Amino acid sequence: MDVIFENLPLYWEGFLRTLFLSVVSGIFALILGTLLAAARVSPVAALRGFSTVYVEVLRNTPLTIAFFFAAVVLPRIGVKFEQFEIAAIIALSTYTAAFIAEAVRSGVNSVPVGQAEAARSIGMKFGQVLSLIILPQALRTVIPPLINILIALVKNSSVAGAFFVLELFGYGRQLANANGDAVITVLLGTAFFYLLLTVPLGILANTVERKVAIAR
Amino acid sequence: MTTHVPGDALVSLNAVNKHYGQLHVLKDINLQVRKGEVVVVIGPSGSGKSTLCRAINRLETIEGGTISIDGKVLPEEGKELAQLRADVGMVFQSFNLFAHKTILENVTLGPIKVKGASKAAAEKDAMALLERVGVGHQAPKLPAQLSGGQQQRVAIARALAMKPKVMLFDEPTSALDPEMINEVLDVMVQLAKEGMTMIVVTHEMGFARKAADRVVFMADGQIVEDATPEEFFTNPKSDRAKDFLSKLLTH
């Protein structure tokens, strides 16, 4: 156990960086994912096509490839960053957005078609129907799957450790290398800090789900 | 058979055609509705009457012919269509109140977001409308907390809040328990008396007798008869209508 307490500052720093990566990527992914879902149900064929291709490609390739593109390929074609964190955020948010888009789309499909018809019949335009009537109802029904995706995002952020970003898992690996006699303890400590992020998310999902449920 | 009304038709359908796959649901429909007229559309299920009603504000697209509201041909998409729809009130069989909004918000949303009314003005109008249809005290509740009859009356108020030129009713009482049908019909009769132009698809023959200026009888996608209620119910001309009416009266 000593190895954990002695290295608490390192764990803490890793924890904060993981938190930072997760929160920032989570926000970008939620915005991008919702826009992709909106594009997917829009009357414009080109938007639907783009959204479909985006989701299918990102969802069906490993996260490592997204990281590789962001960290290695982007700088080669001229997109340079000061820190690898930015590459990590790009990779995590573009990858996670594909899953969020699918969840939101399933939520949109769960809203009865009469809701959109009623909104259109009082003269709302497509954007208003979507933002005022459909999405507010759709998002409420998909909170549990959305939180699942965010939990996966927190854990996926550990891949950043392999791309020069010292987050929780990156520090965990450093510590494990430095303390060959206490690898198990070090990894248990790492796992504990991940749980500190993900367990409250699960609890939040339950609470929010109960609070915002819509009676029909 | 259609009666052609010269001049001031508010809603005008000319040679309207529509297919669902192989099924020809609207066959060369011609119908003119004047301002202030109440037209009740009846007919057996599958006769195309709901499709007709929904086509008038383009919730159903049509393949041939034209539909015009107050002289303007229905645009196909976009902003112009939205503007025209704002002038056409629609009441659905399944109410379709916005499930995540309160009763008051259901009625104020259109005036605020579509017409740019101020919140205070929209709420004042909405409360007056809700009082008029008898559900004023339900204003802060959510739709699911109201009975079907109450929800449908709110839906009527929501449509009226846009100050429409014409109101469409697509089987407004078909999803209601029998004891709630009258409270909705009463509101509709009142509306008819006040001079609202109405196109009502319904199975309520009592309403047709009481409030309609004309009864349009549809079968197999065609308008078979177009007559006054008196004429239609006492002296139907077509066999199709006679058959339909005889089936109603046996119960």
From TrEMBL, chain A:
Predominant cellular place of this UniProt entry's protein: membrane
CDD domains: TM_PBP2 (cd06261)
InterPro entries: AA_ABC_transptr_permease_3TM (IPR010065), ArtM/GltK/GlnP/TcyL/YhdX-like (IPR043429), MetI-like (IPR000515), MetI-like_sf (IPR035906)
Topology term for the membrane: Multi-pass membrane protein
ABC transmembrane type-1 domain mapped to chain residues: 15-205
Segments crossing the lipid bilayer: 20-41, 53-74, 86-105, 149-170, 182-203
Subcellular location: Cell membrane
Gene3D superfamilies (UniProt xref): MetI-like
The UniProt record lists the keyword Membrane: yes
Key words of the record: Amino-acid transport, Cell membrane, Membrane, Transmembrane, Transmembrane helix, Transport
UniProt cross-references to Pfam families, sorted A to Z: BPD_transp_1
NCBIfam families: HEQRo_perm_3TM
PANTHER family xrefs: AMINO-ACID ABC TRANSPORTER PERMEASE PROTEIN YHDX-RELATED, MEMBRANE COMPONENT OF AMINO ACID ABC TRANSPORTER
Stated family: Belongs to the binding-protein-dependent transport system permease family. HisMQ subfamily.
Name of the featured protein: Glutamate transport system permease protein
Organism of provenance: Pseudarthrobacter defluvii
